[in-house]
Give the backbone structure.
Amino acid sequence: MKKYKTLSGAILIATISLVFSSSYSYALPEKGVAGQILEILSESGKIPSGTFLGKNKVTLTYMKFGETMGPKGSIVVSPGNGESSIRYTELAVDLFEQGYSPIYVIDHRGQGFSGRLLPDSHKSHVESFSFYADDLKTFIDTVVMPQIEQQRLYIVAHSMGGAIAADFLERYPSKKIQAAVFLSPMMMIYDDEGRTESELLSKLKLGCFLGRCNDYIPGAGPYQPKDFSEDNRSTSSKDRFAIKDTLRKVYPQIQLGGTTLRWVKESINAIIKIRSEADKIKTPVLLMQASEDKVVDNRGQDEFCEKSDNCRLVKIEGAKHGLHLERDQLRNQVIDQILKFFN
C-alpha cells in the first residue's frame, strides 16, 4: 500500500493499492484507471489548486501535485488541446513516485478550468497562439519559481502543449529549465485529405474574411461523449480512453468541443514559425513520436528535430497520438524514456 500526497490546499491522494507485475512498472493499474483517478481527486480539498492572470487578464488555473520538494526536482506539464489538468493525475502519480515533486499542470486558456474566450464555452479557441507561451512564462515566473526556489525544473508537454513549450523555449530562453520532453508535439497538423499547410491557410483565411473565424471548423461542434472504438486516434487502451469522458461527466465545467477556424489558423501560422526557429532552443529536448499518429503529422516533428541541435527524437512503434494514455506495454516505454532523459 502506498500513500501519495498532493498539495493544493492540502490535497490528500487516497491510499492506493498498486499491483506490481511485469506488464507495467510505473502507472496505476490500467484496468479501471478512470475510477482510480476519481478516487484520488475526490479526496482533494480544492480543484483546481490555484489561479493566476494570463495574457489580457484571462483567469487561468492549474493543479499542483506534491507537498514537499522532490529529490529529483519539479515538473511543469503543458497539456494538449482540449485537455484538462486533472487528466494528468495518473502521470503525476508516476512522476511523484520516481522522486519529482511538486508537479504543476497548467490549464491553458480556453480549456480545462481556465477562463473561456467565447460565449459558447464548448469552442476551443485562441486569439493568438503566442498567448499560450506568454501564459506559460507568467505561470513559471509568478507561481512555480517562487514556490520551488532553486530546485531543478523540467517540462513535460503533449501535442499542442509541445508546440506551446517549444514557442516558450524559443522566445524566452532560460537556464531555469533543465530539460524538456515533448510527447507527440503538434509541429504539423495531420490532414486526412493530404492538403498542405498553405492550402489549409487559404481556406481558413477565406472563412475569416467571410466573418466565420469564431465558428467551429466543418464537422466539429459542442462536446459529445464518445464510446471507445479501435479506430480512435488517441489510444489503443480502452481504459485510458475512458478517462476523458469520465472526468468531464463528474466535472462538467471542463467539457470542450471542437476547434474554431481561428484556432486552426493561429496554430498553423505558429507551428510553421516554431519549426523554422527550432535552432533557438538551447534546452535539451527529448521528442517522443507516435508511429501511428493521425492527429499531428510526424513530418513536422522530423523537421523540428533536424533544425535543432538540442533535440533527440525517439519513436514509439505501434503507439497512437496519446502517448501518456496508451496501453501499458507502450506507455511504460514512454515513462522509461522520460525518466532516463531527466536523470
